[in-house]
Amino acid sequence: MKHNRVMIVLMGAILITSCGQASKNKEQKSSKTDRQNQTTVFAVATTKAVKGQIRDYMALSGDIVASSTVDAYSDVAGKISKLFVSVGQRVQKDEPLAEVDPSRPGMTFNPGIVKAPITGTVVALPAQLGMTISQSVTVARLAGSGTLEVRTYVAERFISKMKVGLPVELTLDAFPGKVFYGQVRELSPTVDPASRTMEVRITVKNESNILKPGLFAKVKIITEEKTGVVKIPATAIVRRYGEQYVFTVETDPQDPARTIAKKRVVTAGILIDDQVEIRNGIEAGAEVVLRGQSLLEDGVQVRVVDTTAPLKTTY
To answer: Can you give the CATH number for the domain in which 100 is found?
Structure first.
């Protein structure tokens, strides 16, 4: 009898332990299932791909020089008694530049007047007041008005991009906010072996006659222009394991309530000024992830927390 009571107690204890363990296992399975059902949602910022213009250019610098100069000489030998002009001054044809006194001790002659041979700007005055000169000495050097020239130098690795006739834009600190235009006029037939550069000469329009030789210019040589191309900010592109791609934000076809990131492999073209041409992979109007893409994988759920205005369609 006593033995039966002990067996009943042991069986009850085992039953209670089994029920407790079963309940614990059920709770663990439920917790694991809940964790599996939880989905990570990535916050991203986006912008729209646009169709528009893009161009490639080389940014250089150079000095403005006269494309052609003319020297002024005296008809008589003597001492320069007067200078009527200074370097940088604009003069008209036949305007007096200097006076030369041919007189000698005991002999007095009428002074000779050195006149401007062309309308232009005085770029040099080799002769100085009081200097004795002959007819072969240059009194003044004038640059013709209208057309000036910029001389700049291109590294040898970019020589293949250069050709005569390419359009050029110039800006100068002397005229902030103003753009001047020109074109490549001449390419040097040789490369400097010391600097490994090639000289490029650029004709500059100076119709308003405000540009002067000696000014420093920032130069953009336009090497390629395209219209009707898809472009996006360059920072949207991810480069990983030899691939370059972007993530677009799209509706999940399996669940229209979800927004997901789709990986789109792209082929990039011109890259300039933080924008890039997309030759294939996405179309204009696609919503492209601009920030937060480094953590994304194809098909993950995303939430757009910020949008950036699309690029301008023009340059």
So the answer is: 2.40.50.100
Convert the pLDDT of each residue in 26-42 to its tens digit. 455 444 444 444 589 99
Residue 182's DSSP bridge partners are 168, 204
Given 90, 112, 143, which residue is the final one in a domain?
143
**Residue owning tokens 């340059």:** 315
Average pLDDT along the chain = 88
The rounded distance, in Å, linking the Cα atoms of 107 and 78 is 12
Asked whether residue 94 is domain-assigned, the answer is yes
Quote the pLDDT of residue 306.
Answer: 97
Q: Dihedrals φ, ψ of 95, to 5°?
A: -75, 140
For every residue of 106-123, which 3-state class applies, written as one string?
CECCCCEEEECCCCEEEE
Q: What is the pTM of this model?
A: 0.70
Give yes or no: residues 171 and 61 share one domain: yes
Token pair, residue 247, equals: 């993530």
Contact 185, 226 (CB under 8 A): no
The count of structural domains within the chain is 3
- Whether 190 is in a domain gets the answer yes
Q: Which residues contact residue 178 at a Cβ distance below 8 angstroms, ignoring those fewer than 6 apart?
A: 171, 172
What are φ and ψ of residue 104, in 5° steps? -130, 165
Same domain, 177 and 190: yes
For the segment 236-243, the average pLDDT, to the nearest whole number, is: 94
Q: Which residues contact 286 (CB under 8 A, 6 or more apart)?
A: 48, 49, 248, 264
Residue-number span of the structural domain to which 285 is assigned: 41-55+227-307
Of 143, 167, 197, the last residue of a domain is 143
* Rounded Cα distance, 184 and 164, in Å: 5
B/e letters for 175-211, b = 16+ CB within 10 Å, e = fewer, are eeeeebebebbebbeebeeeeebbbbbbbbebeeeeb
Beta bridge partners of 61: 218
Q: Same structural domain for residues 237 and 217?
A: no
